[in-house]
Structures are given as structure tokens and as C-alpha cells.
Amino acid sequence: MILKKAVEKQIRNNLPLYFFVLVFFVAGIAAGAFTVDALSSMQKEELVSYFQSFFSILDKEPVQSATVFKQSFLNNSQFVLIIWVLGITVIGIPLILMVIGIKGFIIGFSVSFLVEGMGLRGLLFALAAVLPQNLLIVPGILVAGVLGLSFSISMLRRKKSKTKKSFSSELTVYSFNILLALLILFVGSLIEGYITPVFIKLFSH
Predict the structure, then answer these.
(1) Cβ atoms of residues 84 and 144 within 8 Å
(2) Distance from C-alpha of 58 to C-alpha of 201, rounded to nearest angstrom
(3) What is the predicted pLDDT for the residue at 203?
(4) Where are the domains of the chain?
(5) Over the stretch 158-183, which tens digit does the pLDDT of each residue have?
């Protein structure tokens, strides 16, 4: 109950930032989808061939769940750690939005290619391979983006107002909140490593 109220307050207090982060994320998805359209037919055939060989490997070999989990957490935590670093800098605002856009681009490109290149099978595979973990990973990265933007803006205000508010205490709170975002990513990566492969095998036949 307390956690729910804290989350609601955080969203309410940063609603404009959530809007901007969401806009850049959606713009990244759209850019990824449009990039698929720009690929030549030969490039699309090569990618389809790659996925088909991937499917055949899945049928023959067991998925190394621990390896998938570690790689997923490593890849996604890099986004959050980059955002954390950028949030500490006064020039971090546009760069954080760019990082969010890149994450959207990756998802948009992956899903759009699977659907366009492989039809219904690609759609089912996208739902199985992309959706489950990203129900947590995407919100985790978006929350980190908002935290980074909020801290970067507070840094700018600090410079203008010359406030004596403790920087170290603000940095501690910011870092703790980023750790919570990483925790969300950790759970999402667990899903990608241990649950998503079950769905992938189901739809890869």
C-alpha cells in the first residue's frame, strides 16, 4: 500500500517528464519500424534466413537459461547505468532522451521485421520472444529515464539558484531509485532467461 502510494506520487509529480520519455520511446519504435521498410529485399532475405536457422537450432538444442538471463541483465542494465551517469551531468537531458529512443528503436525494428518478414509466425514469435520480459524491462528503463531527467533538471536549478541543499543526499536518493529500476530489470531478465524460452520453443515449430 505504501509502495503503491509512493509510485503514484512519483508519477504524478513527474507527469510531464513521463510524457516526454514516452514520446521519445514511441518515436524510437516508429523509427525502427520505418527502418525495416528501408531494407533491401536481399537484406530482408538474409535476416529471415538467420531467424529460420535460429529456429532450427532451438528445436535441436536446449536454451541456456542462465546465460540468456545474464546477457539480458547485462544489456539492459547498461541502458540504466548510462542514464544514471547522464543524469549527473547538466548536458544529460537530450542524451537521456536519445538513449530511450534507441531502446524503442531496437524493439520497433525487431517486432516490425519479424511481422513483415515472417507473417503470422513472426507475429507469434514476437509476442513470445519480445513481449513477456519487456512488460517489466521497458517500464524499468522509462522510470530510469524519468529519474535521470529529473535529477539533471535539479542540477540545472541548483546552478541557477545557488542553493545550499546537500548534493550528496540528493545523489544518494537518486542512486537508490536507480537501483530500484535495476531491480525491475533484474526480474524482467529472469523472465527472459527462464520463462520466455518456453514460449519461444512453443511458437518456433
Answers:
(1) yes
(2) 7
(3) 67
(4) 13-203
(5) 777 666 567 788 899 999 999 999 99
